[in-house]
UniProtKB/TrEMBL annotation:
<dbReference type="GO" id="GO:0006281">
    <property type="term" value="P:DNA repair"/>
</dbReference>
<keyword id="KW-0227">DNA damage</keyword>
<keyword id="KW-0963">Cytoplasm</keyword>
<dbReference type="InterPro" id="IPR017871">
    <property type="entry name" value="ABC_transporter-like_CS"/>
</dbReference>
<comment type="similarity">
    <text>Belongs to the ABC transporter superfamily. UvrA family.</text>
</comment>
<keyword id="KW-0547">Nucleotide-binding</keyword>
<dbReference type="InterPro" id="IPR027417">
    <property type="entry name" value="P-loop_NTPase"/>
</dbReference>
<protein>
    <recommendedName>
        <fullName>UvrABC system protein A</fullName>
    </recommendedName>
</protein>
<keyword id="KW-0228">DNA excision</keyword>
<keyword id="KW-0267">Excision nuclease</keyword>
<dbReference type="GO" id="GO:0005737">
    <property type="term" value="C:cytoplasm"/>
</dbReference>
<dbReference type="InterPro" id="IPR003593">
    <property type="entry name" value="AAA+_ATPase"/>
</dbReference>
<keyword id="KW-0238">DNA-binding</keyword>
<dbReference type="GO" id="GO:0016887">
    <property type="term" value="F:ATP hydrolysis activity"/>
</dbReference>
<keyword id="KW-0234">DNA repair</keyword>
<dbReference type="Pfam" id="PF00005">
    <property type="entry name" value="ABC_tran"/>
</dbReference>
<feature type="domain" description="ABC transporter">
    <location>
        <begin position="426"/>
        <end position="738"/>
    </location>
</feature>
Amino acid sequence: MNERMIRIRGARSHNLQTVDLDLPRGALTVFAGVSGSGKSSLVFDTIAAEAGHQVNETYPPFLRNRLPKWTRPEADEITGLSPVVVIDQRRLGGNARSTVGTVTDTWTYLRLLYSRIGTPQLGESNRFSFNDPAGMCPTCSGLGETVEIDTAKFLDPDRSLREAAILLPGFADDGYWQSKYIDAGCFPTDLPVREWTEDQRLALLYGGEYAERLDPKPPKGFESLVAWFERIYLRTSDTLSEHKQRAVDRFTRSGRCPDCRGERLNAEARAVTVRGRTIGELALVEVAELAGLVAAVTEPAVAPVVAALTERLRAMDAIGLGYLHLGRATATLSGGESQRIKTVKHLGSSLVEMLYIFDEPTVGLHPHDVDAMTGLLKRLRDKGNTVLVVEHDPAVMAVADQIVEIGPDAGAGGGRVVFQGPFAALRTADTPTAKALASRAPERREPREAAGAVTVAHASRNNLRDVTVDLPTGVLTVLTGVAGSGKSSLAAELVAQHGAITVDQRPVGANRRSTPVTYTGIAAPVRRLFAKASGLPAKFFSANSEGGCPECKGLGVVYTDLAFMDGQETVCESCGGRRFSDEALRHRVDGLTIADVDDLTIADALDRLADPAIRRGLRDLDRVGLGYLRLGQPLTTLSGGECQRVKIAKELRDAAAPSLYVLDEPTTGLHLRDTDTLLDVLDQLVDKGHTVVVIEHNLDVIRRADWVVDLGPGAGRHGGRVLYEGPVAGLRGTPTAAALGHD
Ligand code: ADP
Ligand code: ADP
Ligand code: ZN
Ligand code: ZN
């Protein structure tokens, strides 16, 4: 029997304060609340984790080991769950063989179409697969690209061999390889390469007939630099070490495969056409246009294939992916694009009564495209599924059946359900979300004066159409435009031409021991406080040194290796995960033990620890809205948006000379209220003389900008032009202007 509710009793993961909640099944519910209030703890770490765990329990143990691991949440009871699909923003990644077409299954349909009605008839559909030897181009092995060696980068013309003119890795001064070429006896060793004869230079690079013409000739077994490079770097297995990959990237250029011209398929497959077009050509056509081409195919033999393929392509177009082509490698997609691609897969699914969970599906979407995304969420619900969405965008809240707000504040000040009901009722409630909705800041009336300008000249990366723009320095500039219009491409060009600093969402702190304490460098001042209070040396208060629990050596956890299963990590029984020895825990500062300090939030620590070095270290993390993080929380648990804010804080503290910063959607994961805090921080960076350029869809950020560069008008080849550059107040006649209410 199916229950009508998801029933949660006594949920206590992270900061949740014994939450009881009933959620209607078959409904669309949006979870709101300030950053750090506990939305993820409830939706991902409690509901999704329990659903995943319960499904895994139904499999035999040997299979369970191969399934994704779900840590069971801390809760008294959770019932009424279904199999769960979590659609998050983790990038799809994948190798060069994973494309938009392969991950959405549209390529499979297209292959079927060609195998059934293509002329001439070829037969099986794997003959159109670039990942199958039967179909792949032999020259590029189905990658569509070949790697060309860029010999211009091999030599520094202003140096001689003895001055390390050979720039390849491994040729550093006095190295083994260096001396091999110096000792060859056929090259001038003290003359800058610029002054060599053409034959000498070509002989060094390519050997062969050029080497034969030299006098004296090179010794037997002479290996040219190109031959050397191919042997060391290119004639190896598919997977290169990171170090080798960097070398390959530096000394090669990848270009379209001369044989298949990027279509990835062999000559046989490339000769087959449907309505005069090859399947390889279709891989390069934008999805929006492809949908029309496919729909025009009317042969009865393929009617079901055409119907399924058209539906899926139209769905992709509808959620703002119409500018992609099926041949695009998934590794090059952004987080928001990846999430929308994953959504497409599930749209075609005929499973019902599933539990779908989305993490901010509007990331990367212009207000203009948000409607399509909400339409899609509603369609999933209408098929009989339960849809839970963590989201800050009021446009998504407005279409939900109900809103659940977690709060009221972050960390220990949150973790409760402060509102449950329809959006209309939220507007009149007394919660942080309701208050923020009621008070949005007005547009900037008087833009700050620019200090100067940097010019991005003749940008033609990706879809940009020879764009030249002057960006004012010393102010806040926002790059706007619909998804796929070219914002990231322009930002990448700015970075390439002017060496701007990109403040991205990649993880901070690679190892498990990095926490806000280690990252901000306050560990030493904290230990000094305890040393002063106790009269003991500071090392007695370091978990990694004398102060550590002897059982787990200050890790707080112990590892057990089990014969057939993955190693297990369990909390250390001796210290209960507190990491410190009993001796270290005997001493207190302001009533707190050294372990209690790790449990403080940054905001609490600022209140309670008066030491100036500690305050300096923590102040900027609090200013960027991360005051709710606990001092001992591993940085590996932070979300992408939180990592980006940690980096902003670091720049606030460290940057001395005026710098040029580029940020991609810094409001990701931010509640309306926290957006205001972030804007204050960006203003502070500008007031210190820095230039800040952000890619944003968030209207509050656009309103506060001094300068706007609006790209478009559409996506992909329909975009790539500058529609407007100037103060925000003057923006007219574009989708962004419409979203701001300017028209
Ligand atoms: P939200 O999703 O609303 O931004 P979270 O659920 O991520 O909030 O966080 C709620 C609280 O739980 C915060 O104080 C956060 O620092 C803490 N927290 C989140 N993840 C972890 C974790 N893996 N371990 C310990 N504390 C965590
Ligand atoms: P925005 O940032 O406005 O969403 P992008 O600059 O990411 O837009 O994309 C602009 C166009 O360039 C789109 O058609 C996109 O598909 C294409 N594009 C972006 N990155 C790549 C890439 N790495 N390889 C091929 N095409 C790309
Ligand atoms: Zn090829
Ligand atoms: Zn221990």
